[in-house]
Design a protein that fits this description.
Blueprint lengths: L42 H18 L5 E3 H7 L9 E5 L5 H10 L3 E3 L6 E6 L2 E6 L1 E2 L2 E2 L2 H5 L2 E5 L2 E5 L2 H10 L15 H8 L3 H12 L19
Parallel strand pairs: 2-5
Antiparallel strand pairs: 1-2, 3-4, 4-5, 6-7, 8-9
Helix pairs in contact: 5-6
């Protein structure tokens, strides 16, 4: 899950203590959590296997969470073109408990330089445990909006599509500004994010290209259909 670090003020987050690898766990070298399952040869399948493994562990422990990122898009029907890691949203106050749960299951959990997530290794894949999404803490309400979907045959809570795209849009910056992924639900996104400079730039471009109607105006017919 990408969250531009240069736009993010440093500092610790309330409810999240400093987490380090478990006692006796080597920091350097590969970490392979859940060693009893072979790593699939296909990278997309490897990421799905890691998502299923971690999701099943958190479900069994009744930890509040929701799948996010490219695997969540896949669960909603997107193409199986997964990115480099697996993303889960957790609440800041649950970070210690989630880390303990995953360590008890044999996964390595550690604290990266970024102060808005934890990281874990599962089946050779990186897993991000995000407790601050687009510079806002993950809340009970965000997780409550998640629907239970099948992720390669394993049911788990998955972020709602609007929340997925809102997170993408809110994270736009001068260094990361990919408009293409957020076109499908522009009305809700403009309502929620349109006053911020980078989202406003997207909507200005869409209006000038006549892809969407200007804010506050009724939708009009295409030019060739107008008298």
């Amino acid at each position: 899950m990408r969250q531009p670090a240069d736009d993010h003020a440093p500092g610790s987050r309330a409810g999240v203590s400093e987490l380090r690898p478990a006692a006796g766990e080597a920091v350097s070298g590969p970490r392979h959590g859940a060693p009893h399952e072979d790593l699939p040869l296909d990278r997309n399948q490897a990421i799905l296997q890691a998502a299923k493994q971690v999701g099943s562990i958190l479900k069994k422990a009744e930890q509040p969470f929701a799948l996010a990122g490219s695997v969540a898009v896949y669960a909603h029907g997107g193409t199986q073109n997964l990115q480099h890691d697996v993303d889960f949203c957790i609440r800041p106050e649950d970070a210690d408990a989630v880390a303990a749960t995953l360590r008890e299951a044999g996964l390595a959990v550690y604290t990266p330089p970024e102060d808005w997530l934890l990281k874990a290794d599962c089946l050779g894949q990186q897993v991000d445990l995000i407790f601050e999404l687009a510079h806002e803490p993950v809340t009970t309400g965000l997780l409550a909006r998640a629907g239970e979907l099948s992720v390669d045959s394993v049911l788990m809570p998955v972020l709602a599509p609007t929340d997925l795209l809102r997170g993408l849009l809110a994270a736009f910056s001068e260094h990361h500004c990919d408009f293409g992924a957020v076109l499908p639900i522009w009305e809700a996104l403009r309502r929620d994010c349109g006053d911020a400079p980078m989202p406003a730039a997207l909507f200005f471009i869409l209006e000038r290209l006549e892809i969407i109607a200007p804010a506050g105006s009724a939708a009009t017919a295409p030019k060739e259909e107008q008298p």
